Amino acid sequence: MFILDQTNSIANNFLAELRDVAIQNDRLKFRKNLERLGEVMAYEVSKALHFIDCDVNTPLGNKRSKLILEQPILIAVLRAALPFYNGFLNYFDQADSGFIGAYRNEGGNQDEGVEIEYLYQATPDINDKNLILIDPMLASGKSVLKTIENLLLIGKPKVIHIVSVIAAPEGVKLINESIKIPYQLWIGSLDECLNDRSYIIPGLGDAGDLCFGNKV
Predict the structure, then answer these.
(1) Which of 83, 132, 172, 199 could form a disulfide with 31 if both were Cys (CB 3.0 to 4.6 A apart)?
(2) 69-96 pLDDT, tens per residue?
(3) Are 45 and 132 in contact, with CB atoms under 8 Å apart?
(4) Can you spell out the DSSP letters for 74-102?
(5) Domains defined along the chain, listed by start
């Protein structure tokens, strides 16, 4: 499991600004910091992809370079993932993309834990592909797990790279116990725990609301 903030870098500034209640009032800056972190995480994930040697012709000669063998498929979980996903798309600019509509049912039986509604899925062919599953908050892990279960109904990827900005140990534990196909976890910051409503502590609040406004 890769955890970005275990190494000092400018990305820690972006993470801190996402959490800061004073800076969160600037919706544009919140989205921009998510996009920046998407770019940083895309760079890190790219190191795990396969590369091939290629010759690049310059105006003055030839240069042997290593280029990505195959673009990954980007899968964004709506709606909070959109700015984070844009950061990935800035770097994997030739990648195919898929979109998932999954959200927590706030009216469900809280005694049974958070319930996930899964309403929409549109993806390209995922067979034998590198998937990058993009969801900024890995809380209980149930939405990621349900997304993967539904994706596996239409194909079998080579490996799934699960990328989040902030994660809770409970979600990481569920992923590690439940997913039986090759995967890697990429996390910006691993926080303390979930509260009784399955929100990450200290977290940053509701990322979707902070990006786009309160939902009703």
Answers:
(1) 83
(2) 999 999 999 999 999 999 999 999 999 9
(3) yes
(4) EEEEETTHHHHHHHHHHHSTT--EEEEEE
(5) 2-53+67-212 (3.40.50.2020)
